[in-house]
């Protein structure tokens, strides 16, 4: 049984087919989907809108009023006698979404990217707080003066004089090359 | 524009190639790379496949479940069905007094064509006589191909 939870996590986990198949709770209507479904009785023939399975087990509209019923009667005759509106009505009785409607883009990506950045931001705050309140003081060897003395000592020792550190120092003119 | 009949034949057919069958009863030839031990099962030709499906949908007393099962299975394959199969399926819809499913089938094969935008117009062109005869409007006719 697949349940969609409200909020970001549910939206992140949902795929188009699963969304249409079964859900409990509300999907975020800000995404541009307009349906809110209750939980589905899976012991009955189900309806679905799936690109790869065009004909579901039951029609979209099960309960037909008298106009629908008379239209269904007309369907038994020649289809050339049906107007375009009637044909569309017959389609909409049997199916919820057309293929283009199934394939319509959603606004879900905005939620995903937005959620991502929010989490980055929270993480950034945590890191900053950590740096301020948790980390011990820096070792004294990191200080400006110590570093300068350290570099001078390394040069005096001729660290990596051929290809590396001291090779970059111009000993004659006392500056970096 | 005169497409060759074989132009839209399914390219990938089941798993009959590249499968090394190592049965005990049929020892492999210990020959170099050229000799492969493919399955010895009989491969169905495209014509046989098409004929089988045309026959399936041509059943005079086909019921709604069989139509659904047939179409869902057919759309599950890695191919776009030939016009003659679709013709048979549309006629089955007519016998079942189900215009909506007929339109749905057209939508489905258009979607099956994927990026190959020339397949669907070809299918409609081939199916035109049937569509006119049975009075099936295409999704485009009904303005249902756009949002």
TrEMBL record, chain A:
Belongs to the cytochrome c oxidase IV family. InterPro entries: Cyt_c_oxidase_su4, Cyt_c_oxidase_su4_fam, Cyt_c_oxidase_su4_sf. It is a single-pass membrane protein. Pathway: Energy metabolism; oxidative phosphorylation. It holds the Pfam family COX4. This is Cytochrome c oxidase subunit 4. Keywords: Membrane, Mitochondrion, Mitochondrion inner membrane, Transmembrane, Transmembrane helix. Component of the cytochrome c oxidase (complex IV, CIV), a multisubunit enzyme composed of 14 subunits. The complex is composed of a catalytic core of 3 subunits MT-CO1, MT-CO2 and MT-CO3, encoded in the mitochondrial DNA, and 11 supernumerary subunits COX4I, COX5A, COX5B, COX6A, COX6B, COX6C, COX7A, COX7B, COX7C, COX8 and NDUFA4, which are encoded in the nuclear genome. One of its GO terms (biological process) is mitochondrial electron transport, cytochrome c to oxygen. The gene is LOC109907975. It comes from the Eukaryota. Its main location: mitochondrion. One of its GO terms (cellular component) is respiratory chain complex IV. Component of the cytochrome c oxidase, the last enzyme in the mitochondrial electron transport chain which drives oxidative phosphorylation. The chain crosses the membrane at residues 112-131. It comes from Oncorhynchus kisutch. CDD domains: Cyt_c_Oxidase_IV. It is found in: Mitochondrion inner membrane. Gene3D superfamilies: Cytochrome c oxidase subunit IV (1.10.442.10).
Automatic annotation (TrEMBL), chain B:
GO terms for molecular function: metal ion binding. Keywords: Acetylation, Heme, Iron, Membrane, Metal-binding, Mitochondrion, Mitochondrion inner membrane, Phosphoprotein, Transit peptide, Ubl conjugation. CDD domains: Cyt_c_Oxidase_Va (cd00923). Pathway: Energy metabolism; oxidative phosphorylation. It comes from the Eukaryota. It is found in: Mitochondrion inner membrane. It is a peripheral membrane protein. Its main location: mitochondrion. GO terms for biological process: mitochondrial electron transport, cytochrome c to oxygen. It holds the Pfam family COX5A. One of its GO terms (cellular component) is respiratory chain complex IV. Component of the cytochrome c oxidase (complex IV, CIV), a multisubunit enzyme composed of a catalytic core of 3 subunits and several supernumerary subunits. The complex exists as a monomer or a dimer and forms supercomplexes (SCs) in the inner mitochondrial membrane with ubiquinol-cytochrome c oxidoreductase (cytochrome b-c1 complex, complex III, CIII). Belongs to the cytochrome c oxidase subunit 5A family. This is Cytochrome c oxidase subunit 5A, mitochondrial. It comes from Oncorhynchus kisutch (Coho salmon).
